[in-house]
Amino acid sequence: MSTYKLTYFNFPALGEPIRFLLSYGGVEFEDNRIEWSNWHQIKGTTPLGQVPILEVDGQVFYQTIPICRFLGSKFNLLGDNEMENYQIDNVVQTITDLRMKIEMVNFDKFSPPNVIEEKRAQLKSESIPFFLKNLEDIASKNDGFLAVKKLSWGDLYFAAMIDYMNWMMKGNLLEDFENLKKVYGNVMEIDGIKSYVEKRPKPQMG
Ligand SMILES: N[C@@H](CCC(=O)N[C@@H](CS)C(=O)NCC(=O)O)C(=O)O
C-alpha cells in the first residue's frame, strides 16, 4: 500500500483540493500542516520553494493542478477520452484564474484601503459573476457536475476552492448559481469528503 504525505500550511487554499482527493480515494495520508514560523527552514527543501508538495512512497510531487490530475487518475476521476479530459482541465483552469484574481485583491498589502475596497467591489459586480456564469452554464449541461456528466477531479477541485474563495470574499459566491450549488453539494455529500471535513483541524486563516 502506498504512503502519502501532504505538506502545506494550516489553511485550505491550494492544499485543500489535494486533501479532498486523498479523502475521496479513501487512502490514509499524513496531513503535514506547517507553521509560517517554520517555513524558512522548509522552503529550501522543496523543488520550487513552494508548497503544496505531496510525497507518494517518498517521491515528491509538486504543482497543485498536476498533483490533482495525478490523484484524479489514481482514483478514477478522469474523463473517458481526450476531449473529456480537456473539458475537466478547462473548468479547473477557469476556477484557478478566478481564484488568482481574488487573491490579488485579498492579499494586496500595498494599495490603500479605499483602492482595495474599489477592487473588491469590482470583483463582486464584474469578475466573479462573469467567471461563475461561464461555469454555471457548463454545469447546467452536465447534470450536477462541472464536466462530463459524472463526478471528476474537477468537481473536487471546485468545491475545495469555493470554500477558500468564499472566505476571501467573506460571502457565498454560489448564492445565485443553482447548478454550481448542485456541483458543490454533490461533492460535499461524498462520505470520504464528509468525514474529512468533520475532522479537519481548524485552519489558521489570518
Ligand atoms: N504554482 C504553485 C503555486 C504554489 C504557491 O504559490 N504556494 C504558496 C502558498 S499558497 C507558497 O508556497 N508560498 C510561500 C512562498 O512562496 O515562500 C502551485 O499551484 O502549487
Automatic annotation (TrEMBL):
<dbReference type="InterPro" id="IPR010987">
    <property type="entry name" value="Glutathione-S-Trfase_C-like"/>
</dbReference>
<comment type="similarity">
    <text>Belongs to the GST superfamily. Sigma family.</text>
</comment>
<dbReference type="InterPro" id="IPR040079">
    <property type="entry name" value="Glutathione_S-Trfase"/>
</dbReference>
<feature type="domain" description="GST N-terminal">
    <location>
        <begin position="2"/>
        <end position="79"/>
    </location>
</feature>
<dbReference type="InterPro" id="IPR036282">
    <property type="entry name" value="Glutathione-S-Trfase_C_sf"/>
</dbReference>
<dbReference type="GO" id="GO:0006749">
    <property type="term" value="P:glutathione metabolic process"/>
</dbReference>
<comment type="subunit">
    <text>Homodimer.</text>
</comment>
<dbReference type="InterPro" id="IPR004046">
    <property type="entry name" value="GST_C"/>
</dbReference>
<dbReference type="InterPro" id="IPR050213">
    <property type="entry name" value="GST_superfamily"/>
</dbReference>
<keyword id="KW-0808">Transferase</keyword>
<dbReference type="Pfam" id="PF02798">
    <property type="entry name" value="GST_N"/>
</dbReference>
<protein>
    <recommendedName>
        <fullName>glutathione transferase</fullName>
        <ecNumber>2.5.1.18</ecNumber>
    </recommendedName>
</protein>
<feature type="domain" description="GST C-terminal">
    <location>
        <begin position="81"/>
        <end position="205"/>
    </location>
</feature>
<dbReference type="Pfam" id="PF14497">
    <property type="entry name" value="GST_C_3"/>
</dbReference>
<dbReference type="GO" id="GO:0004364">
    <property type="term" value="F:glutathione transferase activity"/>
</dbReference>
<dbReference type="InterPro" id="IPR004045">
    <property type="entry name" value="Glutathione_S-Trfase_N"/>
</dbReference>
<dbReference type="GO" id="GO:0004602">
    <property type="term" value="F:glutathione peroxidase activity"/>
</dbReference>
<dbReference type="InterPro" id="IPR036249">
    <property type="entry name" value="Thioredoxin-like_sf"/>
</dbReference>
